[in-house]
Amino acid sequence: MRAVIAEDSVLLRIGLVRVLETAGFDVVAEVGDAEAVLTAVEEHRPGLVVLDVRMPPGFTDEGVRAALVIRKQWPDTAVLLLSQYVEERYAADLLSGDTRGVGYLLKERVADVEEFIDALRRVASGGTALDPQVVSQLLLRRHSDPLDRLTPREREVLELMAGGRSNAGIAAALFVSESAVAKHINSILSKLDLPKADADHRRVLAVLRFLGVG
């Protein structure tokens, strides 16, 4: 079966290629961003796509959005998403439709080659492979407050946003770079399920959510 790999980390991408080839897959393309993976799938029509949840240029949900496009346009193509952390909303997005040929695993699972190969083959044959931690989080968060999804540092950033601090002000208060603050804010907006709109408007909505208004 032909396979396409989309992973921005070169070292991990090389490792994935070797694992898939060991499992008997023909890796026809290996790319580093979501746009390239859609082009590769259209060109090669693989049976399996393995892709990272977060990829360039924004490192937010590019991989998930690409996976959803693949599932819609090429429904016979199996998709296995890999994530550094448990991100239950992304898993829920992927599993909201047809779950045949769908997988969502933490990257640490790749280290157990036999288990990972088993997951690859299961997804490629139309089955499902979900990381145990992903399942636990989905069950845990089903009825919880979206604010519970935030890390302690993300809560600090949101609290400073509520206090009217700019990105520069938040960076100074937390002794981090402005780029780090921007990444935290992107993650906060994503975890709070805020609609994609004007960035300033989304910040206001996040603060209102934090304050329990609306």
Read across the widest sheet, the strand sequence of neighbours is 2-1-3-4-5-6
Distance between the termini: 50 Å
What's the SSE pattern?
EHEHEHEHEHEHHHHH
Strand content: 5-15%
Total helical elements? 10
What does this protein structure show overall?
- By secondary structure, the chain is an alpha/beta fold.
- It has two domains: 139 residues, Rossmann fold, CATH 3.40.50; 66 residues, Arc Repressor Mutant, subunit A (Orthogonal Bundle).
- It has ten helices and six strands.
- The protein has a six-stranded parallel beta sheet, sandwiched between helices.
- Strand 5, helix 5 and strand 6 form a beta-alpha-beta unit.
- Helix 2 packs parallel to helix 3.
- It is elongated.
- It starts with a strand and ends with a helix.
- The relative contact order is 0.10.
- The mean pLDDT is 85.
Task: Record keyword descriptors for this entry.
single chain, 214 residues, alpha/beta, Rossmann fold, Arc Repressor Mutant, subunit A, 2 domains, six-stranded parallel beta sheet, 52% helix, elongated
Quick recap:
The chain is 52% helix and 14% strand.
Present the secondary structure layout.
Layout: E1 2-6, H1 10-22, E2 26-31, H2 34-44, E3 48-52, H3 62-73, E4 78-83, H4 88-95, E5 102-106, H5 113-124, E6 128-130, H6 132-141, H7 152-162, H8 167-174, H9 178-191, H10 199-211
Parallel strand pairs: 1-2, 1-3, 3-4, 4-5, 5-6
Helix pairs in contact: 2-3, 4-6, 7-8, 7-9, 7-10, 8-9
